[in-house]
User: Fold these one by one.
Assistant:
Number 1:
Amino acid sequence: MLDITTSRRGALALLLAGTALSAGAASAEEITLGALRLTSHSPTYIALERGYFADEGLEVELSFFESSAAMAVGVAGGDLDYGVTSITGGLLNLAQKGAVKVIGGALAEDPSVPGALILASNKAFEAGLTEPSQLSGKSFGITTAGSSFHYMLSRIAEKEGFAASDMQMKPLQKVGAIVGALSSGQIDAWVIQPSIAKRLIDEGAAHEIGRFSDYDPSYQVTAIFTSTGIAEGEREQTEAFLRALSKGVADYNAAFVDKTASEDDVSELTGIVHKYVSVDVPDDRFAKDMSEGSMRINEGLALSTTSVQAQMDWMQAEGLVSDEITLEMLVDSSYVDTM
């Protein structure tokens, strides 16, 4: 015989549980996060898929971009809440206008870990371009003036004793376009993170002629940033975002950089990243890219302000940004652990 009292209690319990779930969903803060389909953005995908953002009460929507410059504009314009980008002239100009703030560090050169590689096209290599000292007069791929690629070229040129202006810089806007230009011999050289560089080398599309860490061993490649309005007005949300992303960083470094994670963990994390990055690449090739081509991302999203200042000084010396821009205009030090 059906116990009506028990049934009513069960129905009430289900109703209360459903109400609690609805309230929890409604209370989650929705944020939009900019991303590039690169392995350097792996912590974002790990934090999302492993529920670290959700654990902090954040519901994250990803918005994908082809370049860091476009992402910076998206944050400044309010289309994005947070982003991960290189320190570019565009970002500094937006900071001077009071639109954006850097709140953490991300990808970085580490002399103990293989970093960005300097590549020569097959055509240029066969013509004698076999080391960075021979880059003067050659063509070099960048996205835009003032980009990370432009900066890296300048550091190589400085140490090798020639001016970056002695090279033919080819602004191709997108990483994919530079890959195509290098592979087809339309440009002579490029410098890029190892996950992309090693694949080009293995496929016979380019040759390694140097390592960027020989020119700037502490280069802060990318940083975490947000709008000034969010940095100043949404502290709890921003701190929650950084905590969640930091957990993704820790998982990423353990699996792919420090090699301290279990095989099962590495396999799981590789699968997570592959859902978002190089989806057309076979699983075994992508696993090799992650294992052999992952650069360090700063634990706790610490930021090398020394490197950021050096990049700013270079842009100012090149006339790419105003001399009036200061580190304080760019970085919100209340969020950042410096190194």
Number 2:
Amino acid sequence: MLSKTALLSSLIAAGASAQQVGTLTTETHPKLPIQQCTAAGSCTTLNTAVTMDANWRWLHTTTGSNNCYNGNEWDTTLCPDGATCAANCALDGADYPGTYGVTVSGNAMTLKFVTNGAYSKNIGSRLYLMASDSTYQMFKLLNKEFTFDVDVSGLPCGLNGALYLVEMDEDGGLSRFPTNKAGAKYGTGYCDTQCPHDIKFINGEANVDGWTPSSNDANAGAGKYGSCCHEMDIWEANSISAAYTPHVCSVDGQTRCEGTDCGDGDERYSGVCDKDGCDFNSYRMGDTSFYGPGATVDTKSKFTVVTQFVTSDGTDTGSLSEIRRIYVQGGTVIQNSVSKIAGITESNSITDDFCNEQKTTFGDTNSFEKLGGLAAMGGAIGRGMVLALSVWDDHAVNMLWLDSTYPTDADATKPGIARGTCATTSGVPTDIEASQGNSQVIYSNIKIGALNSTFSS
């Protein structure tokens, strides 16, 4: 998996994150209930909700409505340094449907790709599930499964509807960083294994030091610091390709990085996190007819995705040994595709053996094993992780790593290069933002519970 640093709003009003709390727009979290199930298949409802990530929100002066961040640059008068910026600037509430194209009906949430609001144009979104008005819902999934329904029929080449877990602080960093006054209520504290530098506030301070505006994204930039943590990509997909991918780090919990630890550029494999991960993409693993329009898992209509986190001893405290994938569509249970690549044992799940064989066969650097493999992933899953739900386009490499031939100059017949049927010229953000603005993804019917308790087999 490649960088998610393109995950930014293009709010004309100013899409940025802050640490003080504004009062110009009331923050009301849309309700998105989920279910918790027992081994008997009996489920109870959890009254959860969602909040918008801080990076999308309006950032303005604490005493008025002047923007602290415009386009892809900071106001250097208000934000000469990180601490001063945190004191001067406030993060405000969100108009979820009007500004961000986020709507909820029952247990289903629709994320629109491009939303033209009264005063803004918004691109993509990232939200987190809340247990209360001020805390994220923490998922501890060892020896359990995570299930949801998804409709990706409205996601073309170049887009990614991602549902994943990251090891963020339960309160968004509110207690660890006194200068953070906004906390989880306003979507603060994001991190992932890409150690993204586009996060505007990290550890309660603005990421203004060394901030460089993006050359190809009018709303993005990168600061000196990154924000790292373990990441479990349960679902990264569009209508063409899908992947699930564990990523691990040598650090636990949200951690600010700088320099080599961030693993940027040529130091990709020297950082504290495994940016590549160990992915299972059915197309990349040799089954080109399993997922897509009219395929075994037919992306023209809604389907159910089940992800099981199996432990070595079958207990909730055991070591993570396997991550299994099952689909359900039209009342039929569909086992995950089996790998068909020479040199990789036929398998349909992620294990350490699978990952090691895949890395060797594809000629990829095995930082997943170096940084602890499934045992490290299980550590984070056991401690508790936050659920992120998003839709985004990719200003770095046009999402070709998910749905096309990547690297584009490599031989597509070489194992691991072909990831989907999208053209290598597809996914250019300026193109799809103009021509595919009505794209959307719908997530619904989220369930957690004991193995085989959240779906009918």
Number 3:
Amino acid sequence: MQVIETLADGLKRELKVVIPAKDMEARLNERLADAKDRVRINGFRPGKVPVSHLKKVYGKSMMADLVNEIIRDKPSAILSERGEKSATQPEIAMTEDQAEAEKILDAQADFEFTLSYEIIPAIELKDVSGIKVTREVVEIADKEIDEQILKIAESARTYETKKGKAAEGDRVTMDYLGKVDGEAFEGGKDEDAELVIGSNRFIPGFEDQLVGVKAGDEKVITVTFPADYPAAHLAGKEATFDITVKDVAAPAELKIDDELATKLGLESVDRLREVVRGQIESQYGSVTRQKVKRQILDQLDEMYKFDTPQRLVDAEFENIWRQINTDLQQAGKTFADEDTTEEEAREEYRKLAERRVRLGLVLSEIGEKAGVQVSDEEMQRSLFEQLRQFPGQEKQILDYFRKTPGASASLRAPLFEEKVVDHLLSEVTVTDKTVSKEELLADDEAEEGQSEGKKAAPKKKAAAKAEVAEGDDAAPKKKAPAKKKAADDGAE
């Protein structure tokens, strides 16, 4: 077998592989000899079929199998011998001429094919001890724990039917039918819907008009959907809702005590406080982690500058671009609405794709050199988490991961990346800084946009408060697409 390099341009490589016809014939003859004792052909005793006859009957199909095995196995072996890693699956090309293919299958012509691929560049790891990050930490006050407990307790709050008019905080049970231009719209109808006045779950202005209603009342409410409402066919439209009030109930008083804890499935109020504190710490810790990770990735991005395999960049860009366009479509927006053009957006997201790929390669190299491993148990936990997110679809998801080549990599990649970040945190300089929750959660998109070159990213919109009925088409929960955090731009 001959391997001839025909292209070496930057990271691009192309190899011509030639296997002489006599070698192909020798391999075929070995297979025919091995099959001789196993093949059963009418008119011949077992093991007595002449190889020449066997070749006449099965030669071409066996040679085709041999060609397929070479195409499947040889590329990785060739790259290994060359000490190269391909960024993506190498592209393989061979003759499409039927006559030439027949000669190869008859062992009358050399078998030739080409391998085209991009190599993963050699990365010389740099000292990271000079990286400095600030870890923002929030001290959780008892007041915040109490506030969170009260929010949680709303799920356990009881209501008692009352006589008289509905007031702020009361729960109204009603039937309603929404109309635009006198025509009912999809998702705008519900029966026995429960709404707590002041919860801000419905369209702005809707709940205010329920103040003063009482059981048995019928009323027409007029509201206007927000201009940035996620459902484009309703955005900015005036709508009416025919309301029939069935019940008005007043809320029972909420107290933070052992009785409340018991209603929530815990043994005591002290245990409830402990659980809630842990939840808040976890939420803040997640934000802290992302900010620290972003600082590390930004500094690694400055430290490492090298050409990236364009096929990887292309694939990453397509993933980003597909998501951006999906988000815009769901929000009923265009690039013009986001103060940019498609060309400018493509350029900016291309840069983002290149950053992700470059940092991915850097983190991969760091993790490999540090011996970072993702255990089977960690993979199992990640898979179970996927299953929990899609109840009712467990079988389809399991089948996907079992049958799709490379699917498990989508589970492993984020786990590996986080473990590499953990490793880096043990080597960089980390300074803790106590901040308020407002400072921790402050929106720093403007700074991100400058550092990431993401001016093309769609602007973040406030959450829609127009959920006429949660989950209905009239009130989708999706927001306009938001800028992606630099922490998420890393290497997954």
Number 4:
Amino acid sequence: MCDASTAAPGDVLAAAPRTAPGEAVDPIALEPVDEVRITTLVDNVFDALLTGDDHVKRVSFGAGAGVRAPQFEGGTTNVGLVAEHGFAALVTVRRGDRETSLLFDTGLSPDAMVNNADRLGADLSGIQAVVLSHGHFDHAGGLAGLAGRRTGLAAMPMVVHPYLWTRRRLAVPGGDPAELPTLSKRALETEGFQVIERRQPSLLLDNAVLITGEVDRTTDFEHGMPPPHQAWDGAQWRHDPLVIDDQALVVHVRDRGLVVLTGCGHAGAVNIVRHAQRLTGVPTLHALLGGLHLGGPAFEPIIGPTVTALTEMAPALVVPGHCTGWRAQHALAATLPDAWVQGSSGTTYLLTT
């Protein structure tokens, strides 16, 4: 498992910075914050035995109230949190004594995110916006549960890329193509979401949170999805390597640097971080969290140059989750042992000045 963390001779060259072609929408005046708390509401893993510290808060099997289970004395049992192949995070930023929050992705199933939030005692009624990293259903399924909690409330802003609504499918050779669930804009608006479509960067929460918009693809190794991932262009199915609606969330922690949160990281972890640095003019990566999409045979060959580039950035915290894959997890843990932290549903990461 250490092989993946050893850079091949070409890895360093492949991971070298390149100038992004064309014009950029920069600089972005991203206001620094005193603190950001990121609570992973849904991830692929839940481990009740993980330990935390002053900056990483874990939850155990005792999270929330006991649930009914007549097979136990007293009729109840303790539960932990739901883990599923999806991602959702509650992001809270603080400047001085003012705190504001938003949701970044909502998980796979309708109930996992809201149930986990309940068990954590996290109040979702106070969030200011919802951001979807891209249109894949394992990041948007929890919108149904969230909508069920919002009856009679004011419209909730939802920031998305306009290609979020793209029909997609997986056409693996030798099997029948499987179309993926596609979000309905009309249904979301009917449920009280105010859909805001942007290809360019967006500043939210009083200019304290940056949503990257489309990410410049500047590395020569982050090629995106393999040929079986296809999109409907209105006339036919075509290979969709870029997942162009992929975007990340960025916060600048004062005197520390950038905190970058990804959903799947389809644009490539290195592309995303460099794009955030370019947009903001902040050179330091303080933390990288979220899905890095390095699992499986199509992506494992780029683990080496990805780890090489991230090592050069020297982040203080790396929490790969969701679709990162176990080989990449081991490579990052071996190469960045002081920064790497195991992700888990329900974990809160505190990043402060």
